[in-house]
Amino acid sequence: MVKGCMLRMGYNGPLNSANYLKSYFLKIYKFLIHSVLHALNHRKGGYDVMRDYQMNMLTTLVLNKKYNFSKIVLHYMKGNITSKGKTWIYPPFVQMMLDSAYPDLEKNENNDLLVHFHMDNEMLKVLVRYHKNHP
Question: pTM score, two decimals?
């Protein structure tokens, strides 16, 4: 189902991979992919590459199918908690919920937070310029 949806979305990269480049999709789907990656990504970077589980999320959105998004988000958050690393990485919407629930929580914006900017016309122009050979 996922590979068929990818082909319908105009994906012209390797299908048997764990990572899928955003630049291989048709322009009309790049903004949706960009939005999914920024909203549900548990990593600090890598917004040009979709992992296989993120492709499953995108496929369910495109095909209007049921999907347990919270299970995936909690799975990766649990992995961060049980790892030996000192930094917890979670999707940006979780930070929004924490900010809303605990407005007085002390934050060091220079070291603790990855700041995301709102989508504007300049960002849309950058997305339009994507091509197959984009690094």
Answer: 0.62
